[in-house]
Design a protein that fits this description.
alpha+beta, single chain, Archaeosine Trna-guanine Transglycosylase, Chain: A, domain 4, six-stranded mixed beta sheet, 278 residues, four-stranded antiparallel beta sheet, Rossmann fold
């Protein structure tokens, strides 16, 4: 949703391709390029959740979420998919005291989630207890909140709370703070990603599933759930941070039989020459 800020070596050619793509989309849909950009920076009106069918039925999950104050609806097409309606939030004040969030974290914070240390790029002119504006890497204010750490305490390898969000551009329940999430009953996952899992699904036991860029674990976790762990599962990624995140996610949902290893997908065949999926 949020692109790079332009400081990471973006070339004029890349920007030219983007401009041309916007032109083509603008012509195809009969709307202005600025309207398209605005829509791309706004979340969908439905935020999707995946029910872990190994831990609960869909109706049980709906009841559990309702007890936590979260109203959900069935998607109608994918059995295990639920959605929560995204509401318009509040206008965000641009303050001098700023916390810059990385892209994925900024997208979650924009929907009302708190900001945790792994998602912070930088803290500017702020100290613990200050009211701050959280901005994306490309300078878009997405939320206001209270800074919960001193700048010197920032460590992206830790998982602690960094900003308690009070206002956000859009409103959504704090999904990852729900007991249903912590217990692995639900996972927030996009609808297209769930469609991939369903396309790969087969009721046969012993099938081999390989995800070569698996972190954070959404797709391989989904396949594990809908196949009830009756297959053989391999998940790879290329950095220690991604592997740690992947293992944490698989543990949360109870996907205990997934083999995880740190590997570069480009050279996977050198280390696992006999590994083939179905």
């Amino acid at each position: 949703m949020f692109g790079d800020s332009g400081k990471n070596g973006k070339t004029f050619r890349e920007h030219g391709v983007l401009s041309r793509s916007l032109e083509l989309l603008s012509d195809a849909y009969g709307v202005s390029a600025s309207f398209l950009v605005q829509q791309l920076m706004s979340p969908m009106k439905r935020y999707y959740l995946r029910v872990n069918l190994m831990k609960a039925t869909v109706d049980e999950a709906i009841k559990i979420l309702n007890e936590e104050g979260v109203k959900t609806y069935k998607s109608g097409m994918i059995d295990e998919a639920l959605f929560v309606e995204v509401d318009k939030g509040e206008k965000i004040q641009a303050r001098d005291k700023i916390v810059i969030a990385e892209r994925e974290a900024a997208e979650r914070v924009m929907l009302g989630s708190d900001l945790y240390m792994p998602g912070i790029k930088k803290i500017l002119k702020a100290r613990k207890g200050d009211e701050v504006t959280v901005i994306s890497e490309n300078g878009v204010p997405v939320a206001e909140g209270i800074l919960e750490i001193e700048p010197r305490e920032l460590n992206r390898n830790l998982k602690g709370l960094a900003v308690k969000v009070l206002k956000s551009l859009y409103k959504l329940p704090k999904i990852r703070e729900l007991e249903a999430y912590k217990r692995g009953i639900i996972t927030d996952q996009s609808y297209p990603s769930m469609l991939i899992g369903r396309e790969l699904y087969t009721p046969l036991s012993g099938q081999v599933y390989i995800d070569m860029t698996a972190s954070p674990g959404g797709k391989i976790g989904h396949i594990y759930e809908i196949t009830k762990g009756r297959g053989k599962y391999f998940a790879f990624d290329h950095t220690n941070k991604k592997i740690e995140r992947l293992k944490s996610e698989l543990f949360r949902i109870g996907a205990n039989e997934v083999f995880v290893d740190k590997q570069d997908s480009r050279f996977l065949s050198l280390h696992y020459p006999d590994l083939k999926s179905n």
